[in-house]
Amino acid sequence: MSRPGFVLEVDAKTPPLMTMSGAQLRLERLGVGTRVVYGPDADRSTDPVGLIDAALQAPLGADPLAAQLSPATRLTLVLLDSDAPLPRPYFDPRRTLAERVLEQAARAGVDDVEIVVASGLRQRWSGAQVTRVLGDRVATSFLPDDLISSHDVTAETLVTIGDIDGHPVSVNARVADSDLLVVIGLRADHTHSCPLAEGITDLATVKRLGSAEGEPEFGRQVCELIAGQIPVFSLVAVLGQPLLSHSLRFASRREWEWGLADRLAFAGARQTVAALPRQGAQLLHGTPRADYAVIDVIGGAHTAVMENARQVWRAANGVEVPGPADVLVTPVWGAAIDESDPIGNPLAAARHALVTQAGSNLGTPFVREGGVLIAQHPLRHRFSNRRHSAAADFFATVLPQTTDPDEIAARFEPAAIDDEWYLDLYRKRFAPHPLRVFQDWYAIARATAPLADVIWVGADRRSAAVLGHRAASTAADALEIASGSVGFSPSIAMLRGVGLVVGDVK
């Protein structure tokens, strides 16, 4: 049985703490009294077939899946893409989920089956990615006949299924024409968002879901509309903490538990990264794989499944934290940002630090209002020309003029989301939709608003300035800069680990 997460209060005998910055691994010694938030132990994965079969046979608020299938059923599997974990798993549990559903469909004599990836504004899936996630067996059966597709939010074939207060909601044509949707996803965070609504609807709906103002109630209504208009059976695997590959296993362990092998592995990793050019460091540490234990598999009615899975993940990955701190320190590792961008560009790093890490709480933030967030990342001004062209232009031309989300939405967003070059990259070259970078910035701005300052350790100063943040050479320098807002004896909390935890801040 793995141990739950806990908070360690640093004292004079506490060893230096390992932090992660881009592809770099380093040791930091923070002040006595710093509260370090450790997640639960990571477990090795086990065969989830028993859990899957139980979820299919005894679902929440729905008939068993087998009872909903017949030879005449027009069946569509919808793969949720927005909640896939990083670091990337060795074996994606969605493969087993999909295979068990397809086996039941075959036994029922269903022969009209397609798979739709609910990618929304994210990159559309290549054949290689389909094979990596679903395996050769499914890929070779469906890809040659074009029976696997990624949703296109700009497609002309989208079908309107209803409206919400006068706002028409359109969805993927195959989804709208299905007798049954089986939604397959992973739960690896605590968010209340509806990845189904974000993944298969039209551009106008997705735009409103992630608007600068933020409309969580609208998202709930869209999700309920889809489930009300189309029969939906959801199947979600709840994941634990990532257990890294052998060469990086020390990062999944607490510092005082490191044995000789762990210390040697850490020293070797640091020396290797220091000796390699930046591209070599990316290859070494930028895209590691991890093992994830499947804690539970939940099937049934969509709304009930999503809420139940969220509660299970919270129970398995929650850590009780004694009150908000004046300063929150968070590492930003490339492996936790984007599998197509090993280190992470400045915008991706800011979103991970402010929205994903600092925002993973039960309502009370890790850091108090008026506090300071210190993040560790190089913030190098490097963007992929093919995958992140829209983000590069946003960073170079929009943010230097204004960081105000309302002004950005009014002045720059309309032209960007209609730009033919960006749209061509989205449709044909596996780049995100240009709207995604705007919505990421709106989320970053909302997360930044309560803070007095955001300081990046070891970051490019110009990149930090473009974000409206500050840069420091060391953690000690960052704390000195923060003293202007929180004084010289602030309470400090540090998030430690390669995975995501949810903080129950008392």
Automatic annotation (TrEMBL):
Segments forming domain LarA-like N-terminal: 43-190
InterPro entries, per database record: LarA-like_N (IPR018657)
Organism listed in the record: Tessaracoccus palaemonis
Source taxon at top rank: Bacteria
A Pfam cross-reference name: Lar_N
Name this protein carries in UniProt: Nickel-dependent lactate racemase
